[in-house]
Design brief:
This protein is of the alpha+beta class. The protein is built from 3 helices and 11 strands. Helix content is 11%, strand content 25%.
């Protein structure tokens, strides 16, 4: 059964990395051989192949603020957040969280059921950053075409924010880095397909650094005393896709994955 679960997890990861072709262009989906073959200079990010990163200096807005706008691909360690940690580092789960983790079933993954991914997980589909003087928006192609808003107008956190999927996010700039402090999460989303849990005490600090034209480095500190004995960090990079656009992908249409997921997540 364990091997069967692992196989299902692997197949599900591939399924997530392929858009719903029946909804979009009439071109046929890529073959398994094509998916297995890496184009020159490509790398694996967020469960799918990403073309070679554009080269050039980090762009800035007219006022000198780093320009983070653009279409990005790379959702981090969506299968298991441990893969985004330093070598030999371990996730410091409390016994109560580990019990939840070990009991989770693949079919119950909220992301597999077309619900938002939360933070730090990002689906392995492209996502766009839209930057204004007062807000930074993340527009997600995956799942429900959801969005995340980050306030950069100097406001403070709400005293008692309603628990939500993406929380209450306040940002500020430090050089070429956008620092995002978020509280007010619900406890519904999973950190990854493996099923790492969290509580409503979750507090994240993210650092989005545009290292050059084509590279966005994302470093996240996870603080949740309700599920983890101490804070821990994960990192991933995203790649700029200057010639692509978000496509209309509605997860609820033709959703055929979750009902075929059987057993534990296969990663716990």
């Amino acid at each position: 059964m364990k091997k069967f679960s692992l196989l299902l997890a692997a197949l599900f990861g591939v399924a997530l990395s392929i858009p719903l072709w029946a909804q979009t262009a009439p071109a046929p989906p890529p073959s398994a051989a094509a998916l297995a073959t890496s184009a020159a200079g490509s790398s694996v990010q967020g469960g799918g192949r990403v073309p070679e990163r554009p080269k050039g200096p980090t762009p800035h807005l007219a006022n000198g603020t780093v320009d983070l706008s653009g279409l990005w691909r790379g959702g981090g360690p969506t299968g298991d957040i441990a893969r985004g940690m330093p070598k030999d580092a371990k996730i410091p789960m409390l016994p109560s969280a580990e019990k939840i983790f070990k009991a989770r079933q693949s079919k119950d993954d909220p992301e597999a059921n077309c619900l938002p991914t939360g933070v730090p997980r990002i689906a392995p589909f492209p996502w766009r950053i839209v930057q204004t003087p007062t807000h930074v928006f993340f527009l997600f192609e995956g799942n429900i075409h959801s969005y995340r808003q980050i306030f950069v107008d100097g406001r403070k956190h709400k005293d008692d924010p309603d628990p939500t999927w993406y929380g209450d996010s306040i940002g500020h700039y430090e050089g070429d880095t956008l620092v995002v402090d978020t509280i007010g999460y619900n406890d519904k989303f999973w950190f990854d397909f493996a099923g790492h849990p969290h509580t409503e005490q979750l507090h994240t600090i993210e650092r989005f650094t545009r290292k050059d034209l084509g590279t966005l480095q994302v470093d996240t500190t996870i603080i949740d005393p309700g599920a983890y004995s101490k804070p821990f960090d994960i990192s991933f990079t995203a790649t700029l896709l200057p010639k692509d656009e978000l496509m209309e992908y509605i997860c609820q249409e033709n959703q055929q994955d979750a009902q075929h997921l059987v057993g534990f997540t296969g990663l716990n």
